[in-house]
Amino acid sequence: MDKEYVNGAVNWRGFVSAHWDIVRFRFMFRLGRGISVTKADLQEEYGIPCLTYGEIHSRYGFEFNPETHPLRYIGFDNPAISKSSMLFKGDFVFADTSEDVDGSGNFTHLNDDAEVIAGYHTVIARPLDSTTSRFYAYLFDSNAFRAQIRSKVYGVKVFSVTQAILKEAKMPVPSKNEQQAIVAYLDRCTAEIDRLLTDLQTQAEMLDRYKREIIAKTITGGLESTVQTLDSGVDWIGEVPSHWAITKTKWIFEIVKRIYGKEDRDVLSITQRGLKIRDIESNDGQLAESYVNYQVVNVNDFAMNSMDLLTGWVDCSPFEGVTSPDYRVFRFFPNKPQCHAYYKYLFQMCYKRRIFYRLGQGVSNLGRWRLQADQFLNMKLPQPPIHEQEEIAAFLDKKTAQVDSLIADINEQISKLKQYRQIVIHDAVTGKIKVSEGIGDGN
């Protein structure tokens, strides 16, 4: 972060052109609030498109157009609807809460005349002069501006961005001609950077898809392409080598629930990056008042979040610890040893390919789509001979490591390009480079 805005102390006058104005946010915008509705009020069709704070954080950064960026709807008859929450082209919508400091100041900018309403946990900022709104969009996207917001937000687990914080933020305001030149320059530069980012993200997605496909193919079909096969009778398994068995989960695994009763073991969380030891001293995330009733997880036990089949995960534990009594812990029968790595790949594939999801029940739109124990235990699984399980696992370990290394290299390039994009925006909107007729010249 540049020294000019460490801790949010932005010395605009120290590095913007002398003839630029430095103006507080409140003199350039009228502020308002989105409507007070909940997720339950939103519907997939019919009504007024509604932009919520979650979409600002996760989907539509910088700008959005409801014609190409789909939104959910609020019913026309909803009593919360008000004219003050209706958006106009050029309006900005800030998320008024964030789960981390870095997300404080996240916003989006309406670049279309379509009818849209701002939803819950949002602050509307309407420019007094909408003809220059795109310049403001680039300015608000700069680290220099965001540093002011981040230095003022308050909260512990949720950080609040209030209208008062926005009102006091300072912003450099060049002449309209300079703003237009800066916008033209940044439109061109960021379009090229974004094209490169899209290409890299596509490459990473293709590699990830290839990894998922090679896992699925190998887990259910083995390593030998010429071996005789037969129909497994299970649609997601398909053809398997004829010497493999098709076995129900309950003939390989037993579910175990052993309440530990003490608090001297590591607490384990199930994340989509695997089982992690939770830092209970940091107060991050949802913490229980006591871990006495947590269940035992031993090395080589499997643990899965069977309560949420959309965002849950399963892993084979490398740790001794305890985990939530709501999770499912299971292990091989002692007299029926199998390859842990093979079945870890298989079960994780069942999350990735939504195989567990098809067997679940509950309320999926509320994150309560669960896999009941009887459905899990009666699932049919491929069961190769144990030496083939080990060969398959070793092959996949090597193959996925190669693919993950390529994806990591691409992600590093993406990270550097995003940093470069920020530098380009920062230098233009703060006057570090002179922009004339859409061309940037170093000063």
Summarize the structure in words.
The chain has 443 residues and is an alpha+beta fold. 33% of the residues lie in helices and 23% in strands. The chain has helices at 12-15, 53-58, 133-140, 143-152, 163-168, 176-221, 340-352, 355-359, 373-377, 386-429, and strands at residues 21-24, 29-33, 42-43, 48-51, 72-74, 86-87, 92-95, 97-98, 107-109, 116-118, 122-127, 154-155, 159-160, 170-173, 229-231, 239-241, 245-248, 253-255, 268-271, 274-277, 295-297, 302-304, 314-316, 321-323, 328-332, 361-363, 368-370, 380-383, 433-436, 439-442. It has a five-stranded mixed β-sheet. Strands 2-11-7-9 form a four-stranded antiparallel β-sheet. It has a four-stranded antiparallel β-sheet with strand order 18-25-22-23, covered by helices on one side. Helix 6 packs across helix 7 and helix 6 (176-221) runs antiparallel to helix 10 (386-429). It is elongated.
Q: What is the radius of gyration computed over CA atoms, rounded to a whole number of angstroms?
A: 27 Å
Cα distance, first to last residue? 21 Å
- Determine the strand fraction and express it as a percent band: 15-25%
CATH level 1 name of the domain at 3-173: Alpha Beta
Quick one: overall form?
elongated
Multimerization state: single chain
- State the major sheet: 5 strands, mixed
Low-confidence stretches: 1-9, 438-443
Question: What structural class do helix, strand and pairing data support?
Answer: alpha+beta
- Proportion in helices: 25-40%
Mean pLDDT across the residues is 86
Order of adjacent strands in the largest pleated sheet: 3-5-4-10-6
